[in-house]
Amino acid sequence: MNKSRVKIFPGSCICADTMLMGDITFGNNCVVHPYVQILAVAGPIIIGDNCMLEERVQIIYRSPPGTASTKQKGPPLVIGSNNIFEVASRVEARRVGSNNTFETKSLIGPKVIVSDGCTIGAGCRISTEIVIGKNIVVYGEECTMRRALRQPSPRLNLLDAAQQILYKNHRILKTTHRHQSSN
Fold it and tell me: Residue-wise over 51-73: b if at least 16 C-beta within 10 A, else e?
């Protein structure tokens, strides 16, 4: 891990047992469990406030397939606030909005844009070029999509409980920046 390129804002709990590569920014009050991999290969990754990444989550930002890889970095991959990435989910999306849940072992490919308030069901794999609209729930073997009746509410109590457990049982990276405005 190259700590000089990782920015951690106040209240965030980032376990030292993570693989962080490239320019990565964690907003306020993020929780990152052990064994998470965040690879900012094609450009910086900016993760908003109140996001939780559970064990073995992978967030990867690399050049799209078929493009020439250059040393010049692209625009940042922006991940909004209040997102939950459950165990072993993998996200390579072009952009992720706010208030989304990526359930266990879900996969989002590099041509996908995820809007706000979406839930990607356990084991769902989406790799075709698509914009997943607001409040969409993806579920089942066929990755069926439907619009939710209401937007999910942020689960801040889940973040607090996870932080308490992680602080007691793991080495935590220190905050590197003092203030950040909300996304």
Answer: bbbbebbbbbbbeeeeeeeeeee
- If you count them, how many residues does the chain have? 183
Give the integer Cα–Cα distance in Å for 163 and 29.
Answer: 9
- Strands 125-126 and 95-96 come out as unpaired
* % of the chain surpassing 70 pLDDT: 90
Pairing of strands 24-26, 6-8: parallel
Q: Report the alpha-carbon distance of residue 68 to residue 108 in Å, rounded.
A: 22
pLDDT in tens, 126-167: 999 999 999 999 999 999 999 998 888 777 788 888 888 888
